[in-house]
Structure to design on (449 residues):
């Protein structure tokens, strides 16, 4: 009788517990091969640029385009400069798993014009060269450092910390080489046996050891046979595949191109362990110029020039940014106020702030001659920004805008820097200021007066 009473008392509790029990969580059904189906068609611009579309738009989609590049998203585009048959694989994902499908894409003819891209040429040396080796710009200040993410008042600059020249010698950093090949978009990371890594990444690298210059050095084999992918737009990014990376490792292998020119590749990238930080690294071609200290790395930015600049006898070296490019050419419109033989041609990049700069032998002195002027041939009217900057501390600068009032003809413009300090040894110009892809500009006769 007592046992029966106890059972009667316990039953409500048992039923309450059973009523509160939740169903076990489920991951759901994995996608099927049918979910991974896709279609493709040539783009409106070229039979060698193919647009791919995943049939199921509700799933995460990742693409291997069979040409050494990859992509993500329901719709993706791939470029095939060379004729051939390419196996394209789409893999789709949900919480239950993944599925893949593949198709063969036949490209009938070569289209060499697709490789004639300014950034491709600067990164790889172009069709005539085929491959280009880059190294850390070890002998220039601020070749490496960290700043806030998103950017702060200093812009794209390592304002929290900027390494001095050769500061990281002995960390397995300056002897690394990065080879970008145009054919097949190939990439090789040559480590010389070890790499320099963020301290938060040390657990991921066996035998990593702390260095006497901060962070860790870790044994690491060459990463060869990888690929690079360039996504151009407002924020042009460069991604290297597999376990390869560029320079100092923070857990990522996608880099935002801040500036690229024939002799400079300046990159910004995030910190996987600290999303509020952004790292910066500057690369130069392995032979521009050679570091004579024996510590590896190039010098970069070693050549400096003086105003006036007329491009006739001396062809100064400019550094571009925002995906701009430049060359010194025969004057395409020797008329009006400018009949000189040679001028600078610059094609405005995809960024609204694109432009170029030249480093000067001595800081500009505005005590007497307070203005800087130049001649410009512009495809449209609008703002043209001048900036003077202290190359040793790019937080120190002055910016002034001029207005281009005549299109498709030479015009002289000038700005006043009256009262500016005697510390500015870099002249930066922004043709087509605040306009993305503003077109082709010609510059000549840069003078202080």
């Amino acid at each position: 009788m007592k046992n029966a009473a106890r059972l009667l008392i316990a039953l409500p509790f048992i039923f309450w517990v059973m009523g509160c029990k939740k169903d076990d969580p489920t991951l759901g059904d994995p996608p099927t091969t049918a979910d991974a189906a896709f279609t493709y068609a040539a783009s409106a611009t070229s039979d060698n640029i193919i647009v791919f579309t995943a049939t199921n738009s509700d799933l995460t989609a990742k693409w291997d385009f069979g040409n050494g590049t990859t992509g993500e998203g329901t719709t993706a585009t791939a470029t095939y400069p060379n004729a051939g048959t390419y196996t394209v694989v789409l893999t789709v994902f949900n919480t239950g798993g993944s599925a893949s499908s593949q198709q063969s894409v036949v490209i009938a003819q070569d289209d060499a014009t697709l490789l004639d891209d300014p950034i491709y040429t600067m990164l790889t040396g172009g069709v005539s060269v085929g491959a280009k080796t880059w190294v850390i710009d070890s002998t220039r200040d601020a070749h490496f450092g960290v700043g806030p993410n998103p950017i702060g008042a200093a812009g794209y600059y390592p304002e929290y910390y900027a390494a001095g020249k050769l500061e990281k010698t002995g960390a397995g950093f300056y002897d690394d080489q990065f080879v970008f090949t145009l054919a097949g978009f190939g990439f090789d990371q040559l480590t010389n046996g070890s790499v320099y890594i963020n301290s938060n990444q040390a657990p991921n690298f066996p035998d990593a050891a702390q260095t006497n210059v901060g962070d860790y050095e870790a044994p690491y084999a060459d990463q060869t046979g990888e690929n690079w992918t360039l996504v151009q737009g407002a924020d042009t990014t460069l991604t290297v595949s597999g376990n390869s990376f560029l320079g100092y490792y923070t857990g990522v292998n996608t880099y935002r191109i801040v500036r690229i020119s024939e002799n400079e590749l300046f990159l910004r990238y995030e910190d996987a362990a600290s999303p509020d930080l952004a790292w910066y690294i500057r690369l130069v071609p392995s032979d521009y110029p050679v570091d004579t200290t024996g510590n590896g790395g190039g010098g970069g930015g070693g050549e400096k020039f003086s105003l006036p600049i007329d491009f006739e006898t001396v062809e100064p070296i400019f550094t571009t940014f925002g995906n701009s490019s430049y060359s010194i050419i025969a004057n395409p419109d020797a008329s009006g106020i400018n009949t000189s033989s040679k001028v600078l041609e610059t094609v405005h990049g995809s960024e609204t702030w694109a432009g170029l700069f030249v480093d000067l032998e001595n800081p500009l002195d505005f005590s007497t001659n307070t203005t800087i002027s130049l001649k410009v041939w512009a495809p449209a009217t609008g703002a043209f920004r001048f900036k003077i900057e202290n190359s040793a501390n790019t937080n120190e600068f002055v910016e002034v805008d001029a207005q281009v009032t005549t299109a498709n003809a030479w015009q002289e413009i000038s700005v006043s820097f009256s009262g500016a300090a005697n510390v500015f040894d870099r002249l930066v110009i922004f043709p087509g200021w605040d306009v993305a892809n503003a077109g082709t500009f010609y510059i000549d006769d840069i003078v202080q007066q």
In short: The CA atoms of residues 286 and 333 lie 37 Å apart.
